[in-house]
Amino acid sequence: MESNPYETPRTEELVRVDDRRARTGGTGDFDVGVCLSEGWEATKRNLGVLAAACVLFPVLSLVCYFTVLGFFFVLPVLWWGAVRLCVQAHDDRAELGTLFSGFSNYGDALARMFGVGFLSFVVGLPGSVVMFYGAFRDELPVYRIGVLISFVWSMVVGIRFHFAWLFAVDDDRPAVQAMGMSWVVTGRVWLKLVLLLFVVFAVNCLAMLTLGLGFLVTVPLTAMMFVSAYRQMVGRPQPVEPA
After folding, report:
1. What's the whole-model pTM score?
2. What is the SS3 assignment for 237?
3. Of 17, 60, 189, 221, which alpha carbon lies 20 to 30 A from 74's?
4. Given a cut of 80, is residue 15 above it in pLDDT?
């Protein structure tokens, strides 16, 4: 019987024969409630490390922004470590030193994170053209229309690439492959992704009631929720045993 081209790919179908890593346990789908519960448990388990990372990472990022070299050659590698830290926290116990783990594999980490960042920027351009035009011409109505178009574009297209960062780090994928796999696995869960994004927004809004201190909890929690969705969809990577 021929396969349904619109069916969510099984995890084993997402892995080429010559790949170094295979996956197990993914269902191709996720539950937002499970994301919230798993995210909360992972956050409680690693709250000290995650809260420290929420303070340290923005400080280091700010330092990188002040220099061209830091922005292009340090920040992407720090971002690789931040993604790895989130995965580590969701799966077990996180260590703050993981934030700097990208520097031990500097070339690959830099290429993959810079690549995903650049491709994400390119993907977002079509939705932002009108907004940029309105801002350049100082035309407020055009700018407002552009903001609306950009929002719709990000909800329909941009959101499909949210998991590229995780594929690049957790699955050891080059940037183009990471973007492509994120697009594939999110094909039939788009509405759930939108719902997850709004839940994440609502959770972070709660932090405002605590004068911002709550972000030390809600930011890790929402990061764990995205990792949970990713894990539910594609499972965990497993080393391929030599033949």
Report:
1. 0.85
2. strand
3. 221
4. no
